[in-house]
Amino acid sequence: MISEARTHRWTSLLTLGVLIAIFSFSAIDKIFHFKGFLLALENYVILPSGNSLTIGVAVIVAELLIAIGLAIPRWRRRAALLCAVMLGLFLMAIGSNYIYGDAGICGCWFTITLAKGAKAHLILNGALLLMALSLWWDELTKVRAVLDSSEAPLEPMAEPS
I need a surface site. Which of 5, 79, 95, 103 has the fewest CB within 10 A? Predict the structure, then answer.
């Protein structure tokens, strides 16, 4: 019988691996297809026009930092929170295009697919957002457990004889 703690550990590791892989490959793919990524950003209705270069570089740097941060245990909690924020922003941008725009190419992956920002894409990003929040919560509870154990009352010192 597999214990609940062991299952939780493997689920957390799988979530971590998926998020690291997605953010690293996504950033690398955007670097290799930089012009296409900038064109995709120009088609987003929520983004100011003419700022695709600045936004594009910021997105790629943020994705790389998230992937690196998730891989380093000391940085994982903050990276998971940044990951959730980025995925929330992606959801808003893709959702805005889906509702108000032409649902153009999302700009996430050029090597694998030239996906349009459709319902399936929104659902996928929502699931990834939940994964990032789950990882952040897991890391936060680890920190709280350490803090709680360090706040245990100390035993009084013995009086010198």
Answer: 5
